Structures are given as structure tokens and as C-alpha cells.
Amino acid sequence: MLKDRIPAIQQALRDESLDGWLFCCFQQADPVSLELLGLAGDHLVTRRCYYLIPAEGTPRKLVHRLEPAMLDHLPGDKSTYLRWEELHTELENLFGGTRRLAAQYSPNNTLPTISRLDAGTAELLRGFGIELVSSGELVQAFAAVWSPNQLESHRRASVHLHHIVLAAFDRVAGILRDGAEADEHSIQQFILEQFDQNGLWTESPPIVGVNAHSADPHYQPGPERTAAITPGDFLLIDLWAKEKPPLSIYADITWCGVCGSEATARQSELFGIAVAARDAAWTLVNDRYPNRDVRGYEVDDATRAVIDNAGFGDFFIHRTGHSIGIQDHGQGANMDNLETHDERRLAAMTGFSIEPGIYLPGDFGVRTEINIALTAEAAEITGAEPQRELLRLLA
After folding, report:
1. CATH of the domain at 188
2. Range(s) of the domain holding residue 258
3. Each residue of 155-205: pLDDT tens digit?
4. What is the mean pLDDT of residues 220-246?
5. CB-based burial label for 166 (10 Å; 0-12, 13-18, 19+)
6. Looking at the DSSP assignment, which residues form a beta bridge with residue 352?
7. CATH number, domain with residue 9
8. Which of the listed residues 29, 113, 124, 288 has the most CB atoms within 10 Å of its CB?
């Protein structure tokens, strides 16, 4: 709970010479603030509300008189407003004495997952003489860090996913050996059934992509959008899920295989490059953590260099990996120097994916995805040994 972490937040603010950390909520505009303030999910935030944690002293909150209890579960002195004129006056009072303020803001929108403060509110705050500072490192420290129990939930989910993905490939193999028909959607539904049987839940269905569909990183089959899986096909399965209790942590993995006895030379070549790129990222993290800082963009650089040097850089069209949390895409550092330049340090008790891919449009695509958890002592690959060779379903 945020209220239990306020002393630690205030110490972090003092360490960074910040006067406070602002949380603004209106509808669903700032998921970071909603999550940290305990307003995510079914809470209906129809009027603007504000929560300020100062570096020293008691937190302050400002809420609309229509929703006066919105922040009552949090400590602090409360003010209310009704008219817009009152709002501006009360905001000026809220920030009295504040000069350097952390907010969900990212200069030049460098980190869009952090850049949630709207331009109008930023203008208003600057009009009060406030210097805005990105809360990126604070968000990672207080929204992305796992508890020991959450770490264990991630480890268990990762083990389940490895069993389920192999069961899915085995199901395809059995169907093909029997001369029956399989398709992407039916295998997707099999995976969802396995999730339920193993006490897992997912915010969106897994990716099951055959041949050219495997070259679409975000392909989703459905009842009216599915391809047959036949002998000789290339098959990619990307699945993510977490345990059902609240605050459980996701796991997210990708495996690939061929529906035959041997992969083609091209398939093996590209998968081997992706494996080498994945291993380069793991080596960087494992060698440097926890004794030296590792930053998200550096992990992406290590991965991307392998694929670039092999001549396939133009076909690796997404970041190397993403933070993992109570949502599949968490609030911590992403392994990214492509879509964004993520300079955040990898922090203890957080986790993330490493998932390089090479996608040949209209042909096929490969991806290999592992999860890395960072304890205070070491980095670990969770779940099972990473995939090193393409599965051969009819060997």
C-alpha cells in the first residue's frame, strides 16, 4: 500500500533534491497514478483529484466536492473545490513552497509510459514557478518493485507457462500424426483452457502464428481469423499469464517450432541469430548486475548488435524487452533503445522480458523470449532453460 511507503518515498525525494511527487487522476488518463493511489480497476474517477507527497511533512490532497471521499483511504490534509476558479486557487495553495516537483512527465515524451501529465496541467504548474522533473526512477522504485511473495508468484507462473507451451506444441504434433486438422485458434483456445486448469489468468489471449503469421509480432488469431496448421509449417507461440490472486506477477515467453522432422536452413539460421542475440543480453545483465548499473537501453544495444551484425537489423522491429509486473507490461525500465531511449537503471526485485525476433514479411518470423528476475543478489532466468533449437514436432 502507498500509505505504508510514504516515508521511503519522502527519503527518495530528499535524495534527489525534489520538493514533492504529484499524482493527478482524471478518468483513465494516468495509469501510474491510478495504480499507486489504489484507484485502478473499478474505481470511477470522474472529477480531477490530486495527491502530493512532499519531501517533508504531511501529504496533501485536493478533491472535488462531488467525490469528496476519493482519496480518504490515503493519509494527508484534504482540501476540496467545486468551481474551476476554486480549483486554480486550491492548486496554488497545494503547491505552496514547492519548486522542484516530480510528476508523471517525460521530457520530449522520451518515455511514453511515464509521460501522462497533460500539457495544460504542466503549463499551469509552470505558471506557479514549479520546475517539473520526470518521476521515471521513482515509478520504477515504487510501482515496479516486487515483494518476495510476488517474485515467487512470477516464478510459479513461469514454470506453468513452460509446461503449457510444450503441451501446446505436443498437441499440434499429436493432431498432425493422427492425420487430423489443427488451426491457430483451436490451439490458442487449448492454451487458455490450460491457463484456467493451472490457476492462471491473462489480460489477452496468446499469439499462435503459423508461417507468414509468425512474422507479425502482434498477430492474434480468432474464430474468423485463423489458419490451418499443416505438416511442414513454421509455428510460433507467445503466451503470457499470471496467477489469479490479486497482485500476482506475470510471466511471458515465446517458443518456436517446425511441424516436421527438420527445420529449413533459413529457419535454423534466423533462430540461431535470435538465440545469440538473446544470450548477449543475458550475458550483459548477468555480468554486471548487481555490482554495476545496467540500463534498459544498454540491454537493447547488446541484443540489437548481434542481429545488426548478422544483416537482419531491419527485420528486428521492436524493442528487446519490457518490464513485467501485475500487468504484462509493467512500470519499470524497458529494454529499449529503438522505440524509446530508456536510461532507467535495472532495479532489484523487478523483472523483464528479453525477446529478440527477426520477421520476414510474407514468409515467417522467429522470436525467443525469456524472463529475467533481479533479486538483491543476482539475476536469474525464470521458469526453465531457454530454448536453444527449434522444436521438431514430427521428428
Report:
1. 3.90.230.10
2. 145-392
3. 999 999 999 999 999 999 999 999 998 999 999 999 999 999 999 999 999
4. 97
5. middle
6. 323, 372
7. 3.40.350.10
8. 113
